[in-house]
Each structure stands twice: as structure tokens, then as C-alpha cells.
Amino acid sequence: MKTFAIPTREQVTPENQAIFDTLTKVVGRVPNLFAVFATSDHALANYITLSNGKSSLRAKEKEAVNLIVSQVNECAYCSAAHTAIGKMNGFTDDQIVEIRKGGASFDAKIDALVKVAKSITENKGRADHQLVENFYAAGYTQANLIDVAVAVGDKTITNYVYALTQVPVDWPAIPEVK
């Protein structure tokens, strides 16, 4: 398989250079996976628009979805990235590992969210009906379920880009979870 080089700022379009500049200001660097998106003239901007779109899910809830989807899709890059981001959103190391294993005994509402997101991912959108009912019983709405589907899609995109490119993981190492 042809290896993907990680483009530098000078190697991308002026539009992507502007995004690189913003990422550097916000994150302190351009993460390798975002840089490889810039191999396309449009993919990075399109992805960031999707990822930063409004949602009925709180940031912590989105991170729980990001963690379980990345685990199900076996994405080492996104699992590492969202472990770091999950900590920034208030999850402990133990909570992150538990979410990656498919549950959240520390919070019944997040547990229902993680379980439904896992089912959506594993079953290609055909979530287990009982898990959807449990999601609603935990206090979520139909609007929330649609936003979970969007969050699963968002994370699946990055999981697939990593699977295709195998760029080096430039986030802190994390424990393996089975």
C-alpha cells in the first residue's frame, strides 16, 4: 500500500494553510490526521465544518461517543486523541477505559448513550431497539438520537481516514482495551 506523507503547511492550498494556522493557534500544532485531510483541497474544511457543527449533545457526551466509536472501529489514532480530549472534558482515566469497553457505570445517562452509540456503530445504523428505548428512558430525545447518529458518522470518517492512511499517532500512548 502506498504510504501517505503528512503534508506541511507549504504543501497545501492557501485555504488549508489558513486552517493549519488556526489549528496551530488552538491546538498548538496540526495533528497528523488533520494534516492528511489536507491532501484533498476540500476535505479538511468540510470535516471541520461537520465536526464543529451545533449539536444537542454536550461536549462530554460527544467525547463519550467519540471514544466508543473509535474503539469499535479499532482506530488507534482517534482512541488516543479522544482519550486526551476526554480528559480535558472531565473524564478520568478509569472512566475513559470503561467507556472504551462499552459502558459507563459512573453515570446512567452516559451509559445509555455509550451503549446506543456502540450498537449504532457495530450494526451499521441498526441499533438494538432495547438500547434505543433505554436511551430515551435515560432522558434523551429523538433529536438527541439523530445527533448521536451524526456524531457516529463524524467519528467514523476520521476512523476510516486513519485506517486508509495509517499516519503516525501523535497523541500520548493509551492502554489497550479489549
UniProtKB/TrEMBL annotation:
A family per Pfam: CMD
Entry's transmembrane regions: none
Highest taxon in the source lineage: Bacteria
UniProt entry keywords in alphabetical sequence: Oxidoreductase, Peroxidase
Annotated GO MF terms: peroxiredoxin activity
Keyword Ribonucleoprotein in record: no
Gene3D superfamilies cross-referenced by the UniProt entry: AhpD-like
Residues in Carboxymuconolactone decarboxylase-like domain copies: 46-116
Keyword Signal: no
Protein name per Swiss-Prot or TrEMBL: AhpD family alkylhydroperoxidase
